[in-house]
Amino acid sequence: MLPINRPIGSQLGLGVKGMSVYVGGDSKEKWIKSVQDKSIIDDSELHVISSEVFIDSDLQKMEKKFIDGEIVKDDYNSDDSGVEFENDEEFEHWKDILVSKMEWQDLDPKISGDFRPFKKVNTSHDRAFDTHEGSLVKSMNFIPNSLISTLSETPIPVQMTDTTGKKSIGNMHSNSTLSVDPNTGELMVIGLLQTVADLRANKDPQQVIAYVSGNSDSVLNIAVLTRSKKEFIKVDKHTKVPGKTWEIKDQKSIESIELNSPIKKILFPQLSAIFRRMSDLIGILTENSLHIIKVSNFNCQTLKFKFQQYKYLSYSSLGDFPFADFAFNPWDMNELAVIDIKGNWAVCSISSSLLKDDTIRVSQDARGTIYDPEELSNWKKIEWSSKFTKLIVMDRSKLFEIDFQKDLQVEIIEAKTWSRLRDYKRIDENISVLLTTKEIIAIRTNKNTNCFDRILSWKHDLDPNDNTLKFSIQKIIKDKVLTLIIYIFTSQSNNVYMHAFSIDTFNLQLTTSCQSNVMTIPNITEGIQTISVPDESYDDDDDYDMNDSYENSSTEYVWINMFLKQYTSNEVTKVIVTNAPLHITKNKNHVHFKTDPNSEGGLKMRYKMKELQEMDNLIQLLTEKYKDYPSNKNENIHDLLQDFGYKLSTLLNEEMVHFNKENRSNLLKNRSLKDLIDLSPSIENLSEFESFLDQLIEHFEESSLKFSNLKSILSFFLHESVPSIDIFYNKLLQCWEIITSNSEVLTRELVKTIVWGAIRFCNKNCYQDKLHNSKDTLTTQYQEIIDLWELNDDEIEEEANKLDNTESTAPMSQPHFTRESQSQIPTIKLSQRNERQERGIANNANRISKSSRNRKSSQARPLCSQAFSSSQTSILPDNITPAFSLMQASAPSLSQSQSSQTSKNKKKKKKKKIGGFK
Amino acid sequence: MFELPVSSNITINAFNLKKLRYQYINDINAKHNELSKNELPTPVTSENDTGGEDLDGDSEHNLTSEDAEVAQERRIRRWKSIMGEAIDDDEDDNNHDDDVDNEFEDNGPTDEEKKYFLRYDKPQESFEKWESNNLKRQRHVNKNFITYYRFKKTRKQIDKKYKVKTMHLNKNVKNNFELMIDGFEPINDNNISRNRNLQNYNKHHLSLLTDLMYSNIFKQKWDIAYKCFTFLLRIPDVDIRRVWNLGSIILQNIDTTKLIDFLQWLSNVYSNKNRSFVQGINYRNDQTNFNGGSRRLTPLYTKTLLWHKLTLSSDSETCESEIDSLIEQIAEMVVIPPYSEDNEIWYIFALCHLVKADNLSEKLYFMSRRNPEVDEMDTYPYDTEIYNNKITICINNCKKYLRKATQDKNFDYPARTIETKLKTIETRTFDFESMPE
């Protein structure tokens, strides 16, 4: 026992030293401390190793429908339940499944194992008539679902309601109001159920998951969770971790119940430990009523339930207000307590009779109210206390302990000032945990001494303004020490705050971990609605004997299976948390994540599972495609380019003929090189390729073709200036390197495709004409301005000097110039880097030696090309350029010097023009 | 994600909403009392109103009637001003704005908040008020069900009034207020306008830095956390008393002597032993013993300091001198309130003596074991008599202070553990005394 200062107890927090007891120097531990030196669980090492969508209820429902083969006709009018094809693709997908099913299925009707003639008739149910009670009528603006889904791209989280006013009601004032119904509790619960039959047969209870689905959250789904196969994950040579998880074996076994009203809370009763059994009831609170479902039978083979629904308790039976919360009596399976949103509470009993339907009856004596006019929030909570007749009832600012038999109530907590109450969970008769805006408080209750003591509080330092804070608890019993791991979550972020208390079951000494931890759950974009951790202490399967797996290991690892439901979607996500040094990278069906340790809160996975999988597939495809890609030898590159250049230039020339012939207005559109010819895949040397492109562009720009500026386009990809394709390639390579082993080939192909697709050309003349035409339509005043635009500063001055000279020269001279340049013979220069460098100081002699060295490679067609090039000049019409010719050593050609001259000219001209636009 | 360590962290909209909320709550409360007075009191309700502690009941009773009168007056005045404003509004917009501000300053929210808190104590020991003595506060269960009819009756007029009142308010505030009185909660109280983080880059920076610090503490990267902490302290609005525990845990893992210095500095500078806690002030932030003490209350950092010193000195080799200096320090402290009233300080004081006694007896014990003939050894110039006396004094002091700590019965300590400890110490000395004979 530790010292305690009543009524406050120990106030602890990070860095706060709590009260201790000195036990002296005999033992190593001189002090019994309320804050343990070590963390109870090794928090700091905990990380998420897997996070995957467990149930996507909307999707799954569709799947189920089709797989079951019961393509019900109400598919068409069941829009409300979310069966709706979002796009054609999805429709096609399902159609495919359907068609494949039809091909393979027997024509005879298949009678399934649970076929029961005439016992139960399912009338077709039209979802369109489902009630959506409870959603605020005044704040119902209809916003199409598709619109809302596109809105999620906005950087600020917009929580809008769909037609049902699902979770938030902040749409009337779409501007900014983000309000929630505080009473929406657990919409996904994992608990243990044990039917009476199972109990008699001495069978273990079943781990059951219950969750909501449907657009209006009105459908309850129940399914049995089964252990996945035993699977040990090796950490290192000596240690293995039993990687045990849960799964739903058969999608068909999921039972759905339509409750016709948005579900607010699902609860599995927690019976007192003295019963040594689990309950067979499930309680569901909806917007307007309270439902109790009794599981009467459970089929081990089909994993299906048989259940019986009690007549529900309507909200009008208490105080005309909707219910806020309810709780089962842990000592009496047929008793429960409810409270409505204004604080009226009552004890109810389930009365079963042979003649009539089972009903829930509200007691006329055991009832009361904690209504406080000052408390505006609807949040109320009710829970059983330490005794058969004692209830804990609370609102945001008060907590009462009520003895309904003695007709007495005590106000224990008054939280009107610095903090407010957020959540409360009962662990057992002795311990319960309260969450306030400031602290996590462990409370000890005792039925004999009537006490309700605050023994230990931990200051969690979480944002006190966050109204959506809730927590769930995991209990681990080991070596007579009960460890409570508390997960605090909020609908505002995907971070989970963890803290652990440990209770010595022998002397009830409660200590706290000295550290807390925050985990970021990957794969979750919105906040967290519920966390539920299956109680694994119960199933001691022989297969899963915890100790056996630890036998060889010196260290024990935590392995937590956690199920959570996102705030806005109905997906249930399964998360595995461990402190074992595991980095599971990939599984057959799932992509796993390792959280980036430095990405606290910063990283938000925007991609959903499906998209990521597609990405994965894509990468695999690409990698496989380029796996055995033939790698050409570099020597061929010049030949290849030469060949390619010829082809291309011929095509371009043809193109230019077209340009001249065709109607000009048609030609204003630009065309891509890709349209003309596919890029030869064997070009591997990118710098060669670039120089080839440079020359090509340079040449054809002289002949009035305009090409897109590749460098500026590439710089758009990287958001920085890209001086050459090589650099672009290297930058891309950095990214791909991480993803695939075959990155170089892949990147090269990518770069080539991008470049080839990006280069487009058009006829400059067409634009020029167009420009002239449109310029003519302007008044002279504007024409002058445009003329001035193209001049340099000094020229403008000149222009100003001779104002009377109105003739504008620049545009007029252009056609003349281009026509002249078209008669030039283009050349292709082979450029190795050193060659290019030397070109600056090159004289002819130098060039000869260089070229002769290259001759071997370019011998394929030197003669031909030369002959061609020399003769072509005369043969071809004026405006058609002959194809490329290799510059030969013997002929330091005229064309070379000419072209360089003209290019110089052009440069000057160009500079002038560009200068104007700058 | 985490609470910001600044003293006034509230947006204007949230502040306005808070004002409005208090006003509304007070009005509703007055109305509710009025109505329940008019209703025929059932035996249960009457008992509830006046039962229990009579004094409290009376004062509440008086208060409510006064409240009602004041509220009535205020209502009339406000109605007038609203009417006037409406006319002003048509004439001149600027004028109207000023008027609204004035009205709020004059008789509006601050008063309302005060009025609200007149009914409630502001606790210091913890964030909520916890009742220790349950039996005294037992009442009968309030069976006066609130029906829809009664609820609407209370709300009807007031809601109408507030519809007028909120007409000219900021749209955000108005919408939030409407939802609030319907029982819904904004996702974040202080986040009434959506882009709260972008409002103020200082605040954004602050929140990032705070989150970063926490995450590094959780990952036990103390160097980075230390850096964050030092940055944080240099931001103007940051109140060190709100994050002292983080500094404490960071320093604990970096340098324990620094930790003691830090806590000592805190206790000296923010001892607050002369400050009295005034119930009437509307404090901006919580004023519990976590953030500082008062004349009645020892701040938590002082206690942490003492515990740290005690545990450290019990482990260290120079235990005796350290314990002595600690005993001296506490002896000075317990002369004046709040320390003289604090059970935990007395308990620490008692433990100091226990540790000292244990230490001394242990030394004596080992000495005697190793050297049965102590008297002959020159290397042990300790007088056993002095030792024995010292130990007896310590034990007596320990018992005395433990009694002191538990005198108001609110403090419990594991008596058996400590008694056995004391007994072992006594036996050691006894053994030693008996041995030479």
UniProtKB/TrEMBL annotation, chain A:
Ranges for domain RRN6 K-rich C-terminal:
782-917
Residues of the region (Disordered) are: 804-918
- Gene Ontology MF terms: RNA polymerase I general transcription initiation factor binding; RNA polymerase I transcription regulatory region sequence-specific DNA binding
Q: Which InterPro entries match?
A: RNA_pol_I-sp_TIF_RRN6-like, RRN6_beta-prop, RRN6_HB, Rrn6_K-rich
The cross-references to Pfam families, in alphabetical order and at most eight, read: Rrn6_beta-prop (PF10214), Rrn6_HB (PF20640), Rrn6_K-rich (PF20639)
| GO BP terms | nucleolar large rRNA transcription by RNA polymerase I
What residue spans carry the Polar residues bias annotation?
806-831, 866-876
Q: What range(s) does the RRN6 helical bundle domain occupy?
A: 630-758
Domain RRN6 beta-propeller: from-to ranges: 181-522
List all Low complexity biased stretches: 893-903
Q: Which GO terms describe its cellular component?
A: RNA polymerase I core factor complex
List where Basic residues composition bias occurs. Answer: 904-918
Q: What is this protein called?
A: RNA polymerase I-specific transcription initiation factor RRN6
Higher taxonomy: Eukaryota, Fungi, Dikarya, Ascomycota, Saccharomycotina
Gene name linked to the record: TPHA0F00600
TrEMBL record, chain B:
- Record field: compositional bias (Acidic residues): 86-110
A GO molecular function annotation here is: RNA polymerase I general transcription initiation factor activity
Q: Which InterPro entries match?
A: RNA_pol_I-specific_init_factor, TIF_Rrn11
GO BP term (any one): nucleolar large rRNA transcription by RNA polymerase I
Q: What Pfam families would the database entry show? A: Rrn11
Q: Name one GO cellular component term.
A: RNA polymerase I core factor complex
Residues annotated as region Disordered?
A: 36-70, 86-112
The name under which this protein is listed is RNA polymerase I-specific transcription initiation factor RRN11
Gene this protein is translated from:
TPHA0J00510
